[in-house]
């Protein structure tokens, strides 16, 4: 079968690895002779992949650097073609979508093994492309807000409405963060690099306030910051989160260790009351069930900025960093 894989070493033979020697996009290769995977244990499904997506930081994931070639791709939509004899939930022919665990990948290929924790049945109102554009971004948003930060999934008279700042709000994950927080009943401040480019869109998906990164100083304090940008934007977030009981969460790949770095730099004075968190999304049937209900009700959908065939996935990875793509995911058609 065909699969897009990462060459484990440079042309000179130097092993790729993170951090320090991240593989370049040129290390992504299309192989036509990869063995078709087989179901081997309970909980596994073999799917014919219809579509996957591109993450702009895929090559920065530690899990992609085993001794041998790694097949990339985590989001998927596809058709179940084989199940384990003990399987009770899924049947051959089911249309499914979801996200594989970060330590496996595997969906930039004709066929992939996924687990019953990673897959749910695809709603009829989604195309293959739209379905693939949802899981990774939506799972990250759902788990950031409701699992790690601990926001109420539905604000009631007996619960507390929070003021939430979301950075990277116009991006793939940020879009879901804004929508899920608004749908839950919280007040959302959406931050991006350009109001001119993004304000109209962000307000159309429910943001109550819209701000550019350089204008945090003019904001009233927020209860929660969810950051998807990292670097200087993340550093600036400390000034806007409430210092007594506020929460700051980042999941940008390069933000790993930001809490410890903040303390080492000696700038945590006055920030001891801030709960600082880092997270990596994991497959979850509970999260996907919540997301799928939103999809069925028409509250959210998969936004597709561009589709490419598997043979062009290297170029697609390079283009995933382009601001000209609009508000949506780069989807790989298998």
Automatic annotation (TrEMBL):
The keyword Membrane applies. Signal peptide: none annotated. Keywords: Membrane, Transmembrane, Transmembrane helix. InterPro entries: ADH-like_N (IPR013154), ER (IPR020843), GroES-like_sf (IPR011032), Lipid_raft_assoc_Zn_ADH (IPR052585), NAD(P)-bd_dom_sf (IPR036291). Pfam families: ADH_N, ADH_zinc_N_2. The chain crosses the membrane at residues 164-185. Residues 23-332 form the Enoyl reductase (ER) domain. Residues 1-22 are annotated as: Disordered. The keyword Transmembrane applies. SMART domains: PKS_ER. GO terms for molecular function: oxidoreductase activity. This is Enoyl reductase (ER) domain-containing protein. The lineage of its organism: Eukaryota, Fungi, Dikarya, Ascomycota, Pezizomycotina.
């Amino acid at each position: 079968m065909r699969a897009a894989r990462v060459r484990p070493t440079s042309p000179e033979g130097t092993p790729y690895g993170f951090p320090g020697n991240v593989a370049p996009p040129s290390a992504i290769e299309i192989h036509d002779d990869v063995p078709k995977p087989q179901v081997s244990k309970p909980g596994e499904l073999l799917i014919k992949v219809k579509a996957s997506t591109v993450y702009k930081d895929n090559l920065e994931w530690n899990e992609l650097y085993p001794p041998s070639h790694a097949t990339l791709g985590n989001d998927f939509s596809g058709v179940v073609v084989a199940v384990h004899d003990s399987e009770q939930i899924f049947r051959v022919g089911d249309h499914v979508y979801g996200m594989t665990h970060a330590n496996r990948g595997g969906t930039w290929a004709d066929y992939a093994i996924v687990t019953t924790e990673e897959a749910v049945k695809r709603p009829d109102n989604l195309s293959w492309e739209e379905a693939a554009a949802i899981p990774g971004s939506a799972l990250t948003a759902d788990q950031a807000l409701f699992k790690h930060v601990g926001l109420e999934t539905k604000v009631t008279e007996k619960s507390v409405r929070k003021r939430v700042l979301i950075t990277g709000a116009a991006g793939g994950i940020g879009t879901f963060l804004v929508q899920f927080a608004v749908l839950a009943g919280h007040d959302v401040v959406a931050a991006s690099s350009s109001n001119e480019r993004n304000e109209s869109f962000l307000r159309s998906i429910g943001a109550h306030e819209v701000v550019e990164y350089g204008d945090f100083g003019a904001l009233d304090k927020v209860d929660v910051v969810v950051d998807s940008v990292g670097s200087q934007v993340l550093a600036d977030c400390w000034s806007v989160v409430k210092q007594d009981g506020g929460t700051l969460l980042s999941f940008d790949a390069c933000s790993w260790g930001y809490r410890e770095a903040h303390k080492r730099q000696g700038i945590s004075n006055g920030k001891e009351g801030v709960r600082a968190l880092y997270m990596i999304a994991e497959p979850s049937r509970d999260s996907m069930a919540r997301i799928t209900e939103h999809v069925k009700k028409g509250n959210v959908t998969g936004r597709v900025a561009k589709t490419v065939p598997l043979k062009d996935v290297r170029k697609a990875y390079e283009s995933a960093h382009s601001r000209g793509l609009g508000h949506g995911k780069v989807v790989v058609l298998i």
